[in-house]
Amino acid sequence: MLFVCANCLKKRMMLNNNSKKHYFLLFFLTFTSLVCAQNKASGKIVDAKNNKEVSKVDIFINDDKTPSLTTTSGNFSIQSDSIIQRLRFSRKNYTPEIFDVTPENAENIFVQLSQAKVSNIQEVVIQAGKPKYKSKKENPAYAIMQKVWAQKRNNGLEKFDTYSYKEYEKTQFDLNNIDSTFMKKKIFNKLDFIFNYADSTASGRLGLPIFLNEAVYENYGRNKPNKDTKRTLVAQKTSGFQDNQVITVAAKNLYRDINIYDNTLNYFDIGFQSPAGTDGFGTYDYNLVDTIAIHGEKAFQIRYQPKRKDVLAFQGNLYIDTDTYAVLGATLRSTQKINVNFVNSVYTQLEYDNPDETTFLPKKLITEVEMSPFSKKKGSKSIIAKKSVDYSNYEFNIPLDPKVFKRKEEEYEDKFTDKDDAYWTKARPDTLSKSEQGVYKMLDQLQQTPKFNRMVKLFETLGSRYYNAFKGVDFGPIFSVYGRNEVEGDRIRIGARSYFGLNDPWRVQFYTAYGFKDQQVKYGAEARYMFNRLNRFMIGAGTSRDIVQLGGQLTSGDGVASRSLSSSTFFARGENISLSSVNQTSVFAAIEPWKNVQIRVDGVMQSIKSAIPEKFNLMYYQGDGQLRKTVNDSHVTISLIAKPGAKFSQTGIDRYQAKNLAPTIVLRYTRGIEGLFNADFNYDKLQFMFYKPFLIGTLGKTVVSFEAGKNFNTVPLALQNIIPANLSYGLAPNTFSQLNYYEFVADAYTTLHLEHHFNGKILSYIPLIKKLKFREVAFIRAAYGSLSDASKAINVEGFKYSAPNEHIYYEYGFGIENIGIGNLRLFRVDFNWRGNYLDRPDISKFGIKAGLQVGF
């Protein structure tokens, strides 16, 4: 994310009809770009016996499985986005030749092909065009794939007692298809030197490399006697953006680990049918093309393509070992009609080693994603993000010290991954190209340019929602400056936080707000400090005085920064009068004894009363029959929070979680202590929450959210469990769209939210609708609970409140997502129906919600 329009950009976009181009610049900032390692080679190919020119020769670059060029004469000229280290020349009836390429011999290459002996020619099956079969059993590729499925392999790491291997990862970003008109934009004034680093890509257009990240990991694992794994980042080198949290998270969100043998491949948390999966023939047409040599092994080349172009599927080649029927390699390229936001195309290349008949080991993975904010048209300005991973130095069944699997404090230090140039020269499987090396030089030069630094600052403000006023101080969140509710009317909020860098071990933040209707000042402040990055042991304290919508969440945290501090809704059905005035002081301590498992203890002292007593009554009877309007509460909460499989971008006190399919599991116990700081009640509360997205093959993704809890004692309304409602016309997760605030109150409750995203699976069959690329969503929400007579009686207006104990309350509906233009499809509309409890007054049986939904 290199270029952002500086402070004048917003005004310029308003005045200029070509603002779409400027929005592109902001988008291009949001995703960063790939380094295009370009190289060229040229020469002549002749017959070794008679020196006559040979045409129709397939030229393969490095270890590619598919030819990059088929010659039409004896002369050839080839170029690539990656470093050309070797060329392989292959033609039927000739013995393949391999030529090692260096900068010195890349031109005037002279290749002599020798005619192969008949006995050495492999048997091939060549099909002209796309053959048609009456049934899949007539297809010779089907017999081969059956044997692949019968001997479906597992990752070989599972069969050894211990293992270790090295992983070299390179992530590159490139602005693609730039032209002279683009280069003359005023935004690049005083920055035009960057185009000295632009170079021609394989398509003949200019590509500008602007980001490069290299990383080396050491992986260790054991399966016996106890299963354990350890992945340690030992070296990292980034071209200028290592301190930008938004770029780091964006890069991590682009890629997922895939296994070609799985039925479903995860890209962007969207399921694509695997061509090597057992369900492949339902999606793809297969064609046995040839038998070729892959690293000295004979392999069937099977070309596949989707039966329908508008489904989430790939086209490419599978390379199957002729003896063991193992997948030696595969290429996967998306269709032109790929229905994924911002994404024009995806290309993946896989290579595997097969040590025996039941296992495989990853050898190389390359994934390239081309993205654009608006258009999928070929030649439009886009961003190419390329990630390559090389796996090497496999060792098995070598005794490993148990200390290897323990986290070490030095691994979390900023300088732990600092390595000199000599280390990187040795660590890289391939040397960097000139254009890749130029990225480091270019970014060093850019960081000395004030205009560039202003652009980056604007981008970071939009991404983090905080504006860095001066060193160590951020103002924000910028989108919370204005709000409105029934108590305060128009509300102005100003906040700030300390911020020195990504890995800050401490944070202080505060805000102050003013309501023009109630003419009251509100505030909140919190300080946190982390003592150890290894186990993330931290403590904190905070205090606040604000107007709060209680019951917005069931399993909510106690921290000042972790809760919604006010209710500000611009458009809603009916007036929201059920607001509370809350004064709170809290302290906490937290630690992660195991990776991604946190134990947290909160101590809270608070007083709660109605913010509008004449309209919303929170008065209750104390034990002696005295009528009270303010609830004084002191409680201690112990929480166990687990996020197995979650990935984070850094190690500071605030971490940014990359999106994936990792679950969130929360178990929470709260003990109210009567008499502590004048608290009014003893009570015990137990709560549980489970959240996880699931890929359901190629049918889409189901998001499951389940919550359950119980108050074991009688408490007033202010401390009860409120089934969360959403009266606004916007989207709000884990709430009930057709409920009113405080319509259901429960001592004990369970709620379930099921939402399935079909990713256009159904609408793609409708001729006219499918062109709009809309995606369908179906959902159902349910709640069940109970409320005792004692809990009703303690409240002055307890007769108004009930729990969904007669029947399970439910809502259902469907939504249309992916609404927009071109690649920019961020709008979603939901249609909601209330399923029961329809005889209640002032209810809404049907409602429409709409909002932005950012994602692929």
Task: Set out the fold topology.
Layout: H1 9-15, H2 19-31, E1 39-47, E2 58-61, E3 69-70, E4 75-80, E5 86-90, E6 97-100, E7 109-113, H3 140-150, E8 154-155, E9 162-178, H4 180-183, E10 199-200, E11 206-222, E12 228-238, H5 245-253, E13 264-267, E14 270-273, E15 284-294, E16 297-306, E17 314-321, E18 327-334, E19 343-353, E20 359-371, E21 382-396, H6 421-427, H7 434-446, H8 450-464, E22 467-470, E23 472-475, E24 482-485, E25 489-499, E26 506-515, E27 520-532, E28 537-548, E29 580-594, E30 597-610, E31 620-621, E32 627-628, E33 631-642, E34 647-648, E35 657-658, E36 664-672, E37 683-695, E38 701-711, E39 721-722, E40 745-746, E41 748-757, E42 775-786, H9 789-793, E43 809-821, E44 824-834, E45 846-852
Parallel strand pairs: 1-7, 8-20
Antiparallel strand pairs: 1-4, 2-3, 2-5, 5-6, 9-11, 9-21, 10-11, 11-12, 13-14, 15-16, 16-17, 17-18, 18-19, 19-20, 20-21, 22-23, 23-25, 24-25, 25-26, 26-27, 27-28, 28-29, 29-30, 30-33, 31-32, 33-36, 34-35, 36-37, 37-38, 38-41, 39-40, 41-42, 42-43, 43-44, 44-45
Distance between the termini: 18 Å
Note the beta-strand portion: 35-45%
CATH topology description of the largest domain: Porin
Radius of gyration: 31 Å
Output the number of helix runs.
9
GO molecular function, one term: carboxypeptidase activity
InterPro entries: DUF5686
Protein name: Carboxypeptidase-like regulatory domain-containing protein
Keywords: Carboxypeptidase, Hydrolase, Protease, Signal
